[in-house]
Specification:
Elements lengths: L1 E3 L7 H6 L2 H11 L8 E5 L2 E5 L10 H12 L3 E5 L3 H13 L2 E6 L5 H10 L2 E4 L4 H15 L10 H17 L3 E7 L4 H13 L4 E5 L6 H8 L25 H8 L2 E3 L3 H15 L5 H12 L6 E6 L6 H8 L5
Parallel strand pairs: 3-10, 4-5, 5-6, 7-8, 7-10, 8-9
Antiparallel strand pairs: 1-9, 2-3
Helix pairs in contact: 2-3, 2-7, 3-4, 3-7, 4-5, 7-8, 8-10, 11-12
């Protein structure tokens, strides 16, 4: 399914407050804590940006977490996360000597819970649904006077994620289209600021699962809209938005359209990426390649952001039928 984006009146503050200069500054700031991840080819004129190669965290969220936490200079921070953002906050906290707290949903996936407990100093639990868990975490942080590092509704987090856009333009300068997974929109917001400032002609496509696409629905309706919860192989993208999120404005202004692969297409992309590259990636990471495959407008050099690789061997086998050694 394709969602052409409506041009909405955009609240000037969010776009003006995340600039190319912010992203360039973030790049220098976070350099000691991240990897400049490689780009590999997976077909004729098709490239993958392997953010699953980030150390320990195995996902792009280390960039935004590092930028925000370095800028905060706090003794402790709190967040709420399904997985990778919490891992990132915990890992960066250990590097910077910052006490970290993460609130997860009740009964989270076992592999995510175990890794969270290894990296984060304190793990708390909210409800069965992420949006309400996030609200509980925000209330806890306010009550205890702890800075909250939001997974996407944070200008420094958005600027950190935008550093991927700078790397892409250096690694594949003649790129025509970039496909970016969207959950809350922090990744695509930061990347789009960098990409569209430096290359206004470049096409930026947001990607969400067909079963649940809150951002695409919100943009179509012209306001942040809650959609029914659904289960997806790209589970980290199947989330509702914070009603006050600044990413909505940035997406409306800078993203060209949405594509929404179905579950079979997501699993097929996971399988194909492994067969061609040997990379074990989660559904939320493979969905960008699934989108490229179904894009009727594709032409020229294409780049798919593989946002993460946090998936157990058992879950990968269940999704793809491939047993990983």
């Amino acid at each position: 399914m394709v969602f052409p984006l409506r041009m909405l009146p955009w609240r000037k503050h969010s776009f003006d407050m995340v600039t190319l200069n912010d992203i360039q500054s973030a790049r220098g700031r976070i350099h000691p804590y991240i990897e400049e991840t490689p780009v590999v080819t997976i077909g004729d004129e098709v490239f993958l940006k392997l953010e699953n190669r980030q150390p320990i965290v195995h996902g792009f969220k280390i960039r935004g977490a590092a930028n925000a936490m370095i800028r905060l200079r706090a003794s402790s921070v709190m967040t709420s996360a399904l997985g990778t953002h919490g891992f990132a906050v915990g890992y960066v906290g250990k590097q910077l000597g910052i006490h970290t707290i993460c609130m997860m949903i009740k009964n989270p996936p076992k592999i995510a819970e175990e890794k969270m407990k290894q990296l984060v100093d304190e793990v708390l639990y909210g409800t069965d649904e992420f949006a309400s868990t996030e609200q509980m975490a925000l209330a806890y942080a306010r009550e205890h006077g702890i800075p909250f590092v939001h997974p996407y509704n944070n200008l420094d987090v958005i600027a950190g994620q935008g550093t991927i856009g700078l790397e892409i333009l250096e690694q594949v300068p003649e790129i025509k289209t970039v496909y970016v997974p969207i959950g809350g929109g922090g990744l695509i917001s930061g990347m789009a600021v960098a990409l569209k400032t430096l290359r206004p002609d470049l096409r930026v496509v947001g990607v969400q699962p067909a079963v649940m696409h809150a951002m695409a629905t919100s943009v179509e309706k012209g306001c942040v809209t809650k959609v029914p919860q659904a289960v997806s192989q790209a589970e980290k993208l199947a989330v509702n938005l914070n009603p006050e999120t600044m990413t909505f404005d940035l997406v409306c202004r800078l993203v060209d359209e949405f594509l929404t692969p179905n579950e079979v297409q997501i699993r097929d992309a996971m399988q194909y990426i492994y067969e061609r590259t040997g990379e074990v990636v989660e559904g939320a990471g493979a969905i960008s390649y699934a989108a490229a495959c179904l894009d009727a407008k594709r032409q020229g050099r294409l780049l798919c952001v593989v946002s993460g690789g946090n998936i157990s061997k058992e879950d990968f086998q269940q999704a793809t039928g491939i047993k990983v050694a």
